């Protein structure tokens, strides 16, 4: 079975990295209890860290590494698509080069940190009727999402939100097959 190529933003790996790992962490707080033992507090999951390493070989090996380094220097988050693991919005945080004394070989390693936009730092002001108000104090998320329910299709979701199927697919590049969406998946609407 041939896997699709891994990609980040507009960069597509010519062949997938040799090693790819995902680190899951949970942040814990530990407090000493006077004259006792301790109390642990679960502070929730931390960002996932995706690491990998691979090689570029052949005549254009150094040129290919330069393309990857250019994406690293661009900064900001981007869509990281792995052919097997889930797609995530991630920051490119590490890139290193291992050079051997050969003109056609470059070893590299990288790390991405998953971004999370599921929190709101805005203040929502409600009027007397309980309806949220708009204004500078109101939260301005700007991005809408829909969680897929059992039996839903992309066509139906697009129709329900007044979008064309083409617009919905363009907003969701992580969906490789528009005919196959699973309950619980998040679909970006705006």
TrEMBL record:
Transmembrane region(s): none
Region described as Disordered: 127-146
Organism of derivation: Flavonifractor plautii (Fusobacterium plautii)
Domain LysM, first and last residues per copy: 144-189
Protein name: LysM peptidoglycan-binding domain-containing protein
Coiled-coil positions: none
One Pfam family of this chain: LysM
Family matches, as SMART domains: LysM (SM00257)
Domain of life: Bacteria
